[in-house]
Design goal:
The protein is built from 7 helices and 9 strands, in the order H-E-E-E-E-H-H-E-E-H-E-H-E-H-E-H. By secondary structure, the protein is of the alpha/beta class. The chain has one domain: Nucleoside phosphorylase domain (Rossmann fold).
């Protein structure tokens, strides 16, 4: 796997004329619009990158964008890889490994998820301050020492200073943001009422099918992480409605401008 990651990184360095991004960004379901804010220097479809996975989910365009956001060099994934698509965990986290080899110093992640905190509402933004991993851990298997220790510390999965910065930006722009714990499940089924209750009982505020594996990989490599969710549906008793992927996309797209503003300001100030 190390050699595969190195080959992909070398291919991208050549394809982008040696562009060195400082920030990596992963854009979730219905949230690829931040790409429009990037002064794109190079746009590369996943299918055109040898040995790179290809996203199969609606709402994930499947491109790597290299360019400037707020004047800062970034690489953005328009579409991620989910465990439920059939990728192995090493493949799910492969893009984060590649971005590290390309030069990123920090990782920003967005996602669409379900809310289980009764104080939340559909369309709210939530800053992640912690997570609970109910996926198979992406670091299971032989450790690749080049990427970090066998037993990475996870006492600060989401960078406290970055969280404070995001909260300050949101306050200045009059954007309501929540803060909470994200629980990562495999999917692809949406949660049952009992599963929603379970997620809340164990300490979750929101539940989704991504983010946690990428953050674990990033933290092993010493990258500070910041993540935001759009609450696209509610998993609270009395407020659970039949939900489709298309509904999730619509809610995410409606909340996207506020998320984009916060992300752009944070990158510009990093």
């Amino acid at each position: 796997m190390l050699q595969r990651i190195q080959r992909i990184a070398e291919h991208l360095k050549k394809a982008t004329d040696g562009f060195i991004p400082e920030t990596g960004i992963i854009l979730g379901t219905g949230l690829s619009g931040l790409g429009k804010e990037i002064d794109v220097k190079h746009s590369i479809a996943y299918k055109d990158i040898p040995e790179f996975p290809v996203s199969t989910v609606q709402g994930h365009p499947g491109k790597l964008l290299f360019g400037l956001l707020g004047g800062k060099p970034v690489v953005a994934m328009q579409g991620r890889f989910h465990y439920y698509e059939g990728w192995t965990m090493p493949e799910v986290i492969l893009p984060v490994r590649v971005m590290k080899l390309l030069g990123i110093k920090r990782l920003f992640v967005s996602n669409a998820c379900g809310g289980v905190n009764a104080g939340f509402n559909t369309g709210d933004l939530m800053i992640l301050n912690d997570h609970i991993c109910l996926f198979p851990n992406p670091l299971i298997g032989a450790n690749i020492d080049e990427f970090g220790p066998r037993f990475p510390d996870m006492s600060e999965p989401y960078d406290h200073a970055m969280i404070a910065r995001a909260q300050a930006i949101a306050k200045a722009k009059n954007i309501l943001v929540r803060t909470g714990t994200y629980v990562g499940l495999t999917g692809p089924t949406l949660e049952t009422p009992a599963e929603y209750r379970y997620v809340r009982i164990i300490g979750g505020d929101a539940v989704g099918m991504s983010t946690v594996p990428e953050v674990i990989a990033a933290r092993q490599m010493g990258l500070p992480c910041f993540a935001m969710s759009v609450i696209t549906d509610m998993g609270v008793e009395g407020r659970i409605e039949k939900t489709t992927h298309e509904m999730v996309q619509r809610v995410a797209e409606k909340a996207e401008p506020s998320l984009t503003l916060i992300m752009r300001e944070m990158v510009a100030g990093s």
